[in-house]
Design a protein that fits this description.
Oligomer: single chain
Number of helices: 14
Shape: globular
Length: about 375
């Protein structure tokens, strides 16, 4: 009965594609204990170092005392608490939108948004390097699924101009999770306005890190305080925000449509209110702690400087995601394992997550990394370089 599954697993193992889980014995930090061993970690999305912040821990405890541990029901039954409601209002104000809506995860937010806004008579246009959740959402929507080359707006415009559909929806990462580069957001918005298309922007890796006071990729330009009505914005709350969950921010009509039609919002238990309570503190810390983003930029600059003479090149990125392009999958695994033996965690990313021939080390930087941490990684990579 399970022979075919076992054979598929054997083939994945043989090709070096089998994924493994690691058991963390400590909290998320730049220094972590896994399976009893201590590591310097460059593998977390806790970009601002908030996951262990004492104020967030205290807020979570206060939230548990106020609301208990679980929500008990979906948002549309009686699981929507005052903490959820206050957080939605705070996130809308922080990102400059009229309204916001909480989801349990970024994956669920993308699935819910795309399937609520697009259907059989519509067309979804997607960047080829989008996150898997956006691709899955487009397929589930049953809309015509049209992909365009990475950040190629000329190709996107050609497709928008020629495709006939009841509704057109462009979906794109704001910061691409395996490249670290940033989508041309303002040009995307202008293009969508020209062709009367919606733009769904996934800012999972930009929120908290980029823009004025960490308000996200939309705030990288000076005229960011007035958002296009064509824009639907999503960001996650388990990366730079340090907790869990996701939210969508948009015009009231869009938010109401999601409340009525997004199945991944309607048919699931709400996230624990204690987390929403903690996230109110997280939003405040993101807004006020500019030093965290400054520390991140210093770490990025130090890493770039240290790897200038490396045989491998960092892909162009101004974000905490710093991919070191290796090319060959076997070599990427060798280097990652060599780092692990030296007490440093950096994951090797291989096809099918990235295109063939572009295996890489995905170095994730945090505001909590110290200069000595960066130097230790740089020295280890030079040691592992082929002679």
């Amino acid at each position: 009965m399970f022979a075919d599954l076992a054979e598929q697993l054997r083939i994945r193992e043989q090709k070096g594609l089998r994924r493994t889980r690691q058991i963390a014995d400590s909290s998320q930090a730049s220094h972590i204990t896994i399976d009893g061993c201590d590591y310097l970690a460059f593998s977390s999305n806790d970009y601002l170092g908030l996951a262990n912040h004492p104020e967030l821990i205290a807020s979570a405890c206060d939230g548990a005392r106020l609301y208990g541990v679980g929500a008990g029901a979906s948002h549309l039954v009686n699981g929507h608490s005052a903490a959820h409601h206050d957080l939605e209002a705070a996130l809308a104000a922080f990102t400059g939108f009229p309204q916001a809506l909480l989801f349990s995860t970024g994956y669920m937010a993308n699935i819910g948004m795309v399937t609520a806004l697009a259907g059989r008579e519509d067309a979804v246009f997607a960047d080829k390097l989008n996150h898997a959740s956006l691709n899955d959402a487009a397929l589930l929507s049953r809309a015509q699924f049209i992909r365009y080359p990475h950040c190629d707006l000329a190709a996107l415009e050609q497709r928008l101009a020629t495709v006939q559909a009841r509704r057109k929806l462009v979906i794109s990462d704001a910061v691409f999770s395996m490249e670290g580069d940033i989508a041309p957001v303002r040009r995307l918005i202008a293009l969508c306005e020209r062709y009367h298309a919606w733009l769904l922007l996934d800012d999972a890796h930009g929120f908290g890190v980029l823009g004025e006071q960490g308000r996200g990729s939309l705030f990288l330009s000076k005229n960011a305080h007035s958002h296009s009505p064509n824009l639907v914005y999503m960001a996650t709350l388990g990366k730079a925000a340090g907790v869990f969950g996701a939210f969508v921010a948009a015009q009231p009509e869009v938010i109401e449509t999601l409340i009525q039609s997004a199945r991944s919002y309607i048919y699931t238990t709400a996230t624990p209110p204690l987390l929403a309570h903690a996230l109110l503190t997280s939003v405040r810390l993101i807004e006020q702690d500019e030093w965290r983003r400054e520390a991140l930029q210093r770490n990025i600059a130090q890493l770039k400087q240290g790897l200038q003479t490396s045989p491998w090149k960092l892909l162009p990125s101004m974000t905490p995601i710093q991919p070191l392009l290796i090319g060959d999958s076997v070599e990427a695994v060798r280097i990652s394992q060599g780092l692990r033996e030296r007490g440093i965690l950096v994951p090797a990313i291989r096809p099918p997550t990235v295109p063939q021939g572009t295996a890489r080390l995905r170095i994730s930087l945090s505001a909590t990394h110290q200069p000595d941490d960066i130097q230790r990684l740089v020295r280890a990579l030079h040691d592992l370089a082929p002679s």
